[in-house]
Amino acid sequence: MKSSGPTGYNRAAFLRMLGAGAIAAPGLHLQAAAADAPLLRIGVLTDCQYADIPTPAGSKRQYRLSRQKLIEAIGHLNSMGDLDFMMHLGDAIDRDASSFDVVMPLFRQAKVPVYHVAGNHDYSIADGQKPDVPRLLEMESPYYSFERAGWRFIMLDGNALSLFSTAKGSPEWTAAEAFRKTSQTKLADYNGGLGSVQIGWLRGQLKAAASAGQRVVLACHYPLLPLDGHSLWDAGAVLGLVQEFKGCIAAWWNGHNHDGNYCGAHGIHFLNFRGMVDTHQNSYARVEIFADRMEVSGYGREVRRTLPFPAPDQEAESLAAKRKAAAPRVIIPKP
Fold first, then answer.
1. Which of the listed CATH numbers 3.40.50.720, 3.60.21.10, 1.20.1050.10, 3.60.15.10 matches domain 41-326?
2. With contact defined as beta carbons under 8 Å apart, do 12 and 2 qualify?
3. Spatial CB neighbours of 327, under 8 Å, sequence gap ≥ 6
4. Are the C-beta atoms of 326 and 319 separated by less than 8 Å?
5. What is the arithmetic mean of pLDDT over 26-38?
6. Domain extents in the chain
7. What local confidence, expressed as pLDDT, does residue 24 receive?
8. Which end of the chain has fewer surrounding CB within 10 Å, N or C?
């Protein structure tokens, strides 16, 4: 997107004039540079999914390597020296509460605040310990928000409505089972939803953001779009709310699908970051938020992207890849 400079020049032409000395007013080159400076710089990681277990036969998940990957990712992000904060989008561990004792000290090595959301594997611990998951992840609450530079980041709990976040037979578990059984679509046991109480809270957050003129990033472990086998259980209700407030929502960030994914819809970027635990290669990102775009610098398996605001409609990358793979191969005979 081009922005206009003085006397109607586009920004690129204006900067060329500055570089050539055609405009010599003191400080103008500094103002032009500042106009395109990032508003926020964020480190994003997801699905560290550490466990002290070997990789199963035929699996890409290198559970034991996640510790070293996390050390390297945090170290690299720290070395940048200009991040405002980091976030981890769920599944810090794969199983066993003792795994938190390995990964959380590593997150504490970050030189900026680290904000977490919980994932399904963070609840793969004893039933009696499940209420402690937010505390173990050093979260103030299962879901919460914070504000930076005119932006509101809303950190959502996609496990509130699930079969794994509470003990089997509990009132919460019974309600989740009833929701699953009455759903018109098949719901995977390893996914979850926000639930009606949290959706009501989210509505209040979005109303407040819209009233304050803030832009919003929604962060959750689970994808909202594209709809597939990884999506939130109550994606329909959440998407309806998101569409209602699409004017202030810039992006939905999530993990869960370790292969990553992306689509653009309703002017919103739905970005699924790739899971750190998969393969021997690391995966994490630096995201710079500008007034008119997000720039994602991916490291390891993560993809580099420039995503303009508002998001143009774009089909899911996973669907595009399947279509390309299924397309018949055309062989042109040599003349």
1. 3.60.21.10
2. yes
3. none
4. no
5. 55
6. 41-326
7. 37
8. C
